[in-house]
Specification:
Rossmann fold; 42% helix; globular; 15% strand
Length: 429
């Protein structure tokens, strides 16, 4: 197949630092399946205030074209202008609604026009349109009719599950609902704990065109031989070889609730535990979290690694003693899968999204969502007891055995896409 991918999300940086591995792995999985990939994405990241230009990493093995999106700078200026003073506070709902709809419409136009230019310039015949994220869904649907091929929408989670009982939710959150309501021949939604299957059911999505799949994991290609001493040479100077290493891997956004981790770490320090949190990731909350660490007097117990390559994430996990995750919306995500695969004992909060993965006292220690004292004591217990850490670590192996690798996950998807094209009118296979 010749697949045209249109993305509202900045795929890069994926191979380097940060990013969403599920985006990169999807492209690689389609390419691994023997299919030709053409990718169109915005020239600049459309979400957030940074005007960073998206660059193509060296070694990319498919054609990438950029939608210029020159209007984005004006949208970002408006976003800055209406953002409240105080940093992390949200833009008022009315302004957010207008800005999101503006981005949705203009991004649709930009992606469609760029796709038309690419088709004319390259004279390619595409077999399938694959739209990433709800903001690209409408562009994928329009191109479906223009190019007369089936379209697929891929969603990376949703926040709509807890809002579906409210009246006119599709009107209040039209961009989020668009991923479900814009017609597609196949709708793929990630099983990441945000309950996208419940949203699909309430929005009456036909089951035969809906797939609800958990992400795969990307284990190291070869055994990791890095030692603590080697990792220490790369890490910030305040990382101590003799401390208990508690690792966390996430974007520094408010809903990731790193503040809970810091509060728990403070209890650990007050209990006399020699423990440090290795924090891999960067984001808008970095400044406020740095201030919080100073206020809690745990600056020396926090090791800021920033956004680091994926191989270094695996190295960190394989050298750490404990993994901690305390997100608000969902804790079912790739860092948790990878921590389980690395046989790390987990400290987290009770969360219905992870109840099949994390069992209190078996492979994890869990605390009530807003009880940081309890969370702190979970950390203290694991820091004090290497035998308990070993018990929880051994229990992770049976959980990890149930996971898909990314190759397995994308092989299943590729089979579905090939069948979709074969069964479509004019399908070449």
């Amino acid at each position: 197949m010749n697949i045209l991918h249109v993305s509202a999300l900045p795929i890069w940086p994926i191979q380097g630092k940060g990013g969403m591995p599920s985006l990169y792995e999807t492209l690689e999985g389609h390419r691994r399946g023997g299919h030709t990939i053409t990718l169109i994405l915005p020239q600049y990241g459309p979400f957030g205030d940074d005007p960073d230009r998206i660059e193509i990493p060296p070694g990319t093995e498919y054609e990438v074209y950029f939608a210029p999106c020159r209007w984005l700078s004006a949208v970002k200026e408006v976003r800055r202008a209406v953002k409240p003073a105080g940093g992390s506070q949200e833009i008022p709902f009315v302004f957010r609604w207008i800005i999101n709809m503006t981005v949705f419409k203009l991004l649709t136009i930009s992606l469609v026009l760029t796709a038309i230019r690419v088709k004319r310039r390259t004279r390619q015949k595409f077999d399938l349109i694959y739209a990433h994220n709800q903001y690209a869904a409408l562009a994928g649907w329009i191109l479906r009719f223009m190019f007369r091929v089936p379209n697929v929408t891929r969603l990376y989670g949703t926040f709509l599950a807890d809002l579906m009982n409210r009246p006119l939710v599709w009107l209040r959150y039209p961009t989020a609902a668009a991923g479900y309501l814009v017609p597609s021949r196949l709708l793929i939604c990630g099983n990441d704990g945000t309950r996208g299957d419940e949203v699909a059911k309430k929005l009456k999505i036909q089951p035969q065109r809906f797939r609800f799949w958990q992400n795969g994991i990307d284990p190291p290609k070869a055994p990791l031989r890095i030692t603590r001493e080697e990792f220490l040479r790369r890490a910030p100077r305040n990382l101590r070889a003799d401390s208990v290493w508690i690792c966390s891997c996430s974007r520094l956004s408010y809903w990731k609730r790193i503040d809970r981790i810091f509060q728990a770490l403070r209890i650990c320090r007050m209990q006399g535990q020699n423990a440090q949190v290795l924090l891999a990731g960067d984001g808008p909350e970095r400044e406020s979290l740095t201030k919080l660490a100073r206020e809690l007097d745990i600056e020396e117990n926090v090791v800021w690694l920033g956004a680091i390559p994926h191989d270094d994430i695996w190295a960190m996990m394989n050298l750490s003693d404990i993994f901690i995750i305390t997100n608000d919306v969902t804790n079912r995500c790739n860092p948790l899968y990878e921590a389980i695969y690395a046989s790390l004992p987990v400290v987290s909060i009770y969360d219905c999204s992870t109840q099949d993965l994390l069992k209190d006292g078996e492979n994890a220690l869990l605390a009530d969502r807003e009880n940081v004292e309890q969370l702190g004591h979970c950390l203290v217990r694991l820091c004090q007891s290497p035998p308990l850490r070993e018990k929880l670590s051994q229990a992770q192996k049976s959980v990890a055995a149930t996971f898909w690798s990314w190759e397995e996950r994308l092989a299943e998807e590729v089979r579905e896409l090939e069948m979709l094209v074969t069964q479509s009118p004019g399908g070449s296979r």
